[in-house]
């Protein structure tokens, strides 16, 4: 039962790991919302029947989001090693883990935003449709 580590050392190790996890989650969540929210709104408004129809933009952004959602996280983690090294300067540690966590979460959050906006009653969106209408109408 004695592994050479006291309860005090074990609790310190758990506390440090918990702090690093909270740090990664908070930063990754911030950037996921910062990028994923506008992306989800773009997906919603650019639909063929959306506020600002842009089918080509919608198809392109939708394909990128679907590609990101379908990629396993481990593959994404390995594929992003050069980008992580370029942005952070290293591929090790909790700060380096923020990049793949964020880029892995953005597509999912964008689809959640799009689905949430799709569930809003169309009567509630009428002012936005009127705001986006061409001025000559």
Automatic annotation (TrEMBL):
Record carries keyword Lipid biosynthesis: no
Q: What is this protein called?
A: Putative D-methionine transport system permease protein metI
Species classification: Bacteria, Pseudomonadati, Pseudomonadota, Gammaproteobacteria, Enterobacterales
Q: Which gene encodes it?
A: metI
List GO BP terms, alphabetically.
D-methionine transmembrane transport
Bilayer topology term: Multi-pass membrane protein
For this chain, the family text in UniProt reads: Belongs to the binding-protein-dependent transport system permease family.
Q: Where in the cell is it found?
A: Cell inner membrane; Cell membrane
- Where does this protein come from, organism-wise? Yersinia enterocolitica W22703
Tell me which CDD domains the record gives: TM_PBP2 (cd06261)
């Amino acid at each position: 039962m004695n592994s050479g580590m006291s309860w005090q050392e074990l609790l310190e190790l758990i506390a440090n790991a918990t702090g690093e996890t909270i740090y990664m989650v908070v930063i990754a969540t911030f950037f996921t919302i910062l990028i994923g929210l506008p992306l989800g709104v773009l997906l919603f408004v650019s639909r063929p029947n959306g506020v600002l129809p842009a089918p080509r933009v919608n198809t392109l952004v939708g394909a990128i989001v679907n590609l990101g959602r379908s990629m396993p996280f481990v593959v994404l983690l390995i594929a992003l090693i050069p980008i992580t090294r370029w942005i952070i300067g290293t591929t090790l540690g909790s700060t380096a883990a923020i990049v793949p966590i964020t880029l892995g979460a953005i597509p999912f959050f964008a689809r959640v935003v799009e689905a949430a906006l799709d569930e809003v009653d169309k009567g509630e969106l009428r002012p936005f449709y009127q705001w986006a209408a061409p001025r000559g109408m």
